[in-house]
Design a protein that fits this description.
This protein is 35% helix and 15% strand. It is α+β, with helices and mostly antiparallel strands. The protein has two domains: 75 residues, Ubiquitin-like (UB roll); 69 residues, [2Fe-2S]-binding domain (DNA polymerase, domain 1, Orthogonal Bundle). The protein has a five-stranded mixed sheet, sandwiched between helices. The termini are far apart. The structure holds FE2/S2 (inorganic) cluster (2 copies).
Amino acid sequence: MKIDFELNGKPTSVDVDGTTPLLWVIRDTLGFTGTKFGCGMAQCGCCTIHFNGMATRSCMLPIQAAKGAKITTIEGIAKDGKLHPVQQAWIEKDVAQCGYCQAGQVMTAVNLLERNSKPTDEEIERAMEGNICRCGTYHRIKDAVKHASELMNNQ
Ligand code: FES
Ligand code: FES
C-alpha cells in the first residue's frame, strides 16, 4: 500500500503493509532511529512523535492512518542547525541517564510548550506523567521543562 505523508517537513512516501505500526516505518523503513520502542502497547511514551501537531504514541498507530499527516520526530525539531530550546535545556540540566526514554520525553515536552508556553508545576507533571523513565530522571525533566519555558519566553 502506497502512503504519502510529510515527515519532518519533507514529502515522504512509503509502500508497506497498511497495518504496520508507524514506529516501525519511521525506524526501519525510513531509518529515523531516534524514536524508540519500549512497551509496544502505548503505555510508556518512548515512541512519542508529533502527529498533526499532537504528541502521539507511534507504536500502535497503523501507517494507513498517516495518509496526508504531518509527522515530526526527534530528528525534526532542531531548525537551521540550532537545537530546539527543549533540547538545549535538556543538555544544560543534564537530564538523560541511560537516554532510552529521552526522545519521547523531549517530544512530549515540546508539544506541551507549544500549547502552553508557561506551564505550572502541576501542568508539567500532568503532561509528562505518561512518559516512563526507568532511570527516574523525573526531577531533572521537570527542571528542564521549566528552563526550556524560560529560554522560549526570552527569545
Ligand atoms: S513503545 Fe509506544 S508507548 Fe511504549
Ligand atoms: S533515562 Fe534511562 S529510561 Fe529514562
